[in-house]
Amino acid sequence: MKVIFDTDPGIDDAMALLYLSKLPEIELLGITTVVGNADIATTTRNALFLRQRFGLAAPVIQGAGETLDGKVKPEPVAVHGHNGLGDIEIPAHVDETGLRAGTAAQFIIDTLRAHPGEVTIIAVGRMTNLALALRQDPAIAGLAKQVVIMGGAFGYEGRSGNITPAAEANIYGDPVAADEIFAAGWPVVVVGLDVTHDIILSEDYLAALSAEVGENGELLRQMSDHYARFYKEIMGLAGVVGHDLLAVTYTLRPDWFETRSGPICVVRDGIAAGQTIQMPAARKGGHPDWANRPAQLVCTAVHADAVLRHYRETV
Ligand code: BDR
Ligand code: CA
């Protein structure tokens, strides 16, 4: 399966990238970066560092450093630390040979055009790069096999936002981009907080990764120390949430998920900016904001035990 990984590393982004590196079914074509868990220079540096650590051949292509509305909305450092990777020590010089010139948006366009109908985009940061690619070349919507997104909170399983009561961080970070992605005619699957909050990596689980996976397992465990403090103090959770790795699981094992189909809108501004709302597919017609949009899939439930077992066995 050909994959573009669009990311803002990010601790759970690193977990997802290690997963991708170990799956023989996945042919990783490129890692595109976006501002989010840190600024764009930092997320790109982190992607290069992780690429080298995980022995990946795919190039890194730097993407958007600003959101479509031009607002700078840095993620609170409490979540991923100052360096985006839980403030673990990163070598001062990372290997930049994997950095490819050009923009992430152009890379997405060129790759979809080179492999029509074959490429899955897994997007686990703000959706700015994808929206820029779509604006530049709207026909690419007909060329992607599938777009799997980590983002949003739809109220299924009673889940609300994480950065505000209404919004999840990736969508809040660029609600205009997200709204454009959901309105486009490509098949989108949304892996949001409705399911990612079922994927809790406990202290014991992380210790097992460290013991069984070796130095990259230990790297994930060290990064997660910072992340765990945030989840304990702010969210009252014992463990860390593996949001982004779940988008990877979906591409391989959609049968472990339940989904709902229907058009999706994003609140673009105001107090509820970034809120994601899905209309049930059964409710046909209605207001043109909804009726003119394609039905997309939102994950509403997941077999969490199977996911956690598969992740541990794979990495
Ligand atoms: C999402 O926001 C980022 O902090 C994480 O990497 C994840 O993609 C969770 O809301
Ligand atoms: Ca992310």
TrEMBL record:
An example Gene Ontology biological process: purine nucleoside catabolic process
Start and end residues of each Inosine/uridine-preferring nucleoside hydrolase domain: 3-308
Keyword field: Glycosidase, Hydrolase
InterPro entries: Inosine/uridine_hydrolase_dom, IUNH, Ribo_hydro-like
An example Gene Ontology molecular-function term: purine nucleosidase activity
CDD domains referenced in this protein's UniProt entry, alphabetically: nuc_hydro_CaPnhB (cd02650)
CC terms in the record's Gene Ontology section: cytosol
Protein name: Nucleoside hydrolase
Native species: Devosia ginsengisoli
